[in-house]
Amino acid sequence: MTDAVHTQSNPATADLTADAPSFPKRVFSGVQPTNRLQLGNYLGAVKRFVDMQNSGAETLYCIVDLHALSVWQDPADLTRATRELTAGYIASGLDPEKSILFNQARVPEHTQLAWIFNCVARMGWMSRMTQFKDKAGKNRENASVGLFTYPALMAADILVYHATHVPVGDDQKQHIELTRDVAAKFNNDFKTPFFPMTEPVIEGAATRVMSLRDGTKKMSKSDPSDMSRINLTDDADTIAQKFRKARTDPDPLPETFAELAERPEARNLINIYAGLADISVDAVMAEVSGQAFSEFKPRLADLAVAKLSPISTEMERLMRDPAEIDRILANGAERARAIAAPILKRTYEITGLVV
Ligand code: AQP
What is the pTM (predicted TM-score) of this model? Predict the structure, then answer.
């Protein structure tokens, strides 16, 4: 690999890109086992994972525990969260027979390919990642190197399976673009269309669920305020209370969704309702226009409880048998490795490594 090729600044325009359609459809995605699954993870990601599984595609869903380590995790909490997230996947409708469910730490090919991608990705690309800027905050010097190189590991998670489609929430769009840049640059540097141009799948009414306390901030597992989010493990009373206390404005709901352009908190609650009910925001507006929040919030809480309580009950049941969860993860990892190992081996050969 020459320096001239290696420093090319716009790999997306390279000739040797490989369009996703020329690779068989394979879906990959993941969630970090940090804290507890929240409603944004469910509507933006896990619910979509289930849809793609049920559409008959080949699907791999990972618990990205190595990503979680990019910020401090208490070891006991990480173990609990890994099993709880697996339980959350299954309780939401992922079937370990239909989808490959596994945790990243058990498939070393992810980190092995990540090293190659660390050497392909450019400092400038990583420096532009908004997730790093948000998570590192003002104290950037003290952020882990892992947080900075997170997108290279994410590119490896996806490309080690030649995954063609990745269902994610809107916040992950930039990382998928970087994955495409990494694939294009690798293909160009080594003059072979080896990696696919993966497509993000960002669909549904709730691709960006916002905090219940601040309609301009993403709902997040690690927000210090528990009132900012609905956890999948919250009971009915807690869900009702969180929606009751959700920040809104004094006006009633208008006729059209477009009229909510300047009302982020109200827009967020409508998006959540649409995501939970699996209907369009226009259909929600037709049902609820004219209502005050005192009327709409209990209605939203009832819908959330109806959709989420069967999931939390099932999660609780699954969590009583951690050995079975570990068995599912070990079995998934074995199946995942069977796909990843030959792709990593070929990558090494392409780069000239003697393996
Ligand atoms: N608020 C959200 N709305 C829609 N989708 C969301 N996702 C996360 N938050 C929202 C989607 O969930 C998937 C898994 O996310 P992750 O665990 O890998 O990390 P994240 O995006 O950083 O999620 P959190 O909840 O904010 O976790 P922490 O606080 O640990 O960083 C992704 O597809 C994401 O888009």
Answer: 0.93
